[in-house]
Amino acid sequence: MNSYPISIRPFGIHAILLEWPGRVDVAILEDILQFTQYLKECCLKEEEWEIVPAYNSVTLIYREEPIDFDQLKVKLLNWYKEDIKVVKREKILWRLPVCYDEDFGIDLKEISQKSGKTVDEIVSLHTSNVYTVFGIGFLPGFTYLGGVPEVLQFDRREEPRSKVLSGSVGLAGKQTGIYPQDSPGGWNIIGNCSVPMFDPKAKEPCFISVGDQVQFYKITRAEYNLHKIESEVGIYKLEKIILDA
């Protein structure tokens, strides 16, 4: 591991927060994921601890009893300094279909005007990039994807919408993401993903994990409708690519 300077502080009586340097960086995220994997494999019983990595931090949650912060802090710092040997984490690229029709991409025209790019150019830029999952939150299954091209980086809308449709694909700052359910939201909406991002009935309700990669590809409205039907009856096949670890 890279052994970045990390800080550790209480996060209530049942949680502890570990923080890496405060920047969005794939190398930092990879260091975090290696350490959390080491904690799960060698230090903390996974069934007792909830371990939540995101961006430049990890939250450790233990609900059975209050955490002895001083004792655990010393252990964590020592564990982090160790020459960690863990099984290499499987790296996954998910290719997700998005329909960029005007009915779905309700902010495409505005983004086009602001960027000086045509709608087709915006779609091409959005689909040609590979994004990293830096966090999952806000809503169950809402993925924060980093790596948006600079020309597509826009602030959130000044007035959030009271309802953003499930599957909506949005842009906000250096991030893109997918709304997993109907929700209020202030991101700039450019399309809709036909794949459900969260299924509470599934063994793994959210199939994507922090550290995975995502690439979008454009589909027609007819393909979108077909995917929706396939998903409802449980026959849609996610496009999952295993990358070299």
Task: Give the SSE map.
Blueprint: E1 7-10, E2 15-19, H1 26-43, E3 50-54, E4 57-61, H2 69-81, E5 91-99, H3 108-115, H4 119-128, E6 131-136, E7 143-146, E8 161-164, E9 168-172, E10 175-178, E11 183-185, E12 188-193, E13 213-219, H5 221-233, E14 239-243
Parallel strand pairs: 5-13
Antiparallel strand pairs: 1-2, 2-4, 3-4, 5-12, 5-14, 6-7, 6-13, 7-10, 8-11, 9-10, 9-12
Q: Would you kindly provide a written description of the structure presented here, covering whatever features stand out?
A:
It comes from Zobellia barbeyronii. This is 5-oxoprolinase subunit PxpB. Keywords: ATP-binding, Hydrolase, Nucleotide-binding. Pfam families: CT_C_D. The chain has a 7-stranded mixed barrel. A hairpin with a 6-residue loop joins strand 6 and strand 7 (143-146). By secondary structure, it is an alpha+beta fold. The protein contains 5 helices and 14 strands. The chain is globular. The protein folds into 2 domains: 7-81, Gyrase A, domain 2 (2-Layer Sandwich); 91-243, Beta Barrel (Cyclophilin).
